[in-house]
Amino acid sequence: MIIHSQKRSFGKGCNVSLFTLGTMRATDNLNKMYSLIKRAHNAGINHLETAASYGKAEILIGEALKKLETSEKIFRKEWIITTKVLPKGDFNYLKNNFKNSLKNLKLKKIHNLAIHGINLEEHLDWVLNGEGGKFIKWASKNDLVNQIGFSSHGSYKLIEKAINCEVFSFCNLHLHFLDQSKISLAHLALKKKMGVLAISPADKGGRLYDPSDTLLKSSEPYHPLELAYRFLLSKGITTLSIGATKIEDFNIVERLINSSQNLTSSEISALENIEKVADRELKSSKCEQCRSCLPCPSEIPIPEILRLRNISIGYGQLEFAKERYNLIGRAGHWWEEKNASFCLGCNECIPKCPSKLNIPELLKQTHKLLIEKPKKRLWG
Length: 380
Ligand code: SF4
Ligand code: SF4
Known about the structure:
Blueprint: E1 7-8, E2 16-17, E3 19-22, H1 30-42, E4 47-49, H2 57-72, E5 80-85, H3 91-105, E6 110-116, H4 121-129, H5 131-141, E7 145-151, H6 156-164, E8 170-173, H7 183-191, E9 195-198, H8 213-218, H9 224-234, E10 239-242, H10 251-256, H11 265-282, H12 302-314, H13 318-325, H14 359-370
Parallel strand pairs: 3-4, 3-10, 4-5, 5-6, 6-7, 7-8, 8-9, 9-10
Antiparallel strand pairs: 1-2
Helix pairs in contact: 1-2, 2-3, 3-5, 4-5, 11-12, 12-13, 12-14
Residues 287-293, 302-303, 306, 352-353, 355, 357, 359 line the site of one iron/sulfur cluster.
């Protein structure tokens, strides 16, 4: 049975469903891509999100959509597609890669093209004053794209600048119930009539498909992931991306495909209970994410590290927090560069914290709690 689903305006582009199928994890083979896209369609999703850098994703999408047309009468024109290009390379490189993306997706024109990872000032400069800008103008002038957007894992200030630069009509941001630091940026973008996509609320949002007993109990009678989705949809976020790997990943999505209404009193009280339990577990040591402690002379991302502490102790998502903490310094500009071991113990941050937290001590504890020995590589 195909579900009729609500669509929301996504920037200057076509309307999209409240959920988007992210295809990064669907690239094993054509069968997998085909069955996930078919299931997404049956759940009411009309928006696919991909990137040239996701291995064979674009080729598999092109093939899967062709097969869906012939075998299921699910027509290509029903889909809105977003692909992405990395902010690097010169005009000819970008032009050739983009033509290749269109060929792989079997499209003459793409609905949405995002610059993938405006994480540093130099990336935005590449768009505003460099080869990226030249490429965007060429793609728009030749009617190869409906609208241009960006994704970012960068700082608050950089994202704010990108939203305000008047080049982009949509943005893909990290917006999560367990990390609300970018929600005000989403609202800024929505106010400017941009489309806003939340990147991976299930996985990057705290691995909520695998909740701790603490989180499961404190969110009753809801599943934590269901509440996290509802929280974002009720905030007006246009669409939430689902990096599905199996058919069951659509169960909650299908239930919420038309659920953009305000939170109910029962949902509000479950969300409040999650916070109450987290406060109790953290015993007055919760970092409120106000960022008043910055800058740190050793450039330690204090709020980000203490947020992982909140998540591991307050919400019980220890494995997720460990994974993120141990990625620090290993993911280039896609994540933070310095972990808590770089703290000099200068105590400059302590008087700046309105919650009167003993930050250096908490950083030390967090490092001890989350650091793991580098895993042995299976090859090389
Ligand atoms: S005590 Fe550590 S975290 Fe605080 S300002 Fe000094 S170096 Fe930065
Ligand atoms: S000032 Fe205190 S509460 Fe605010 S982000 Fe820094 S550590 Fe957290």
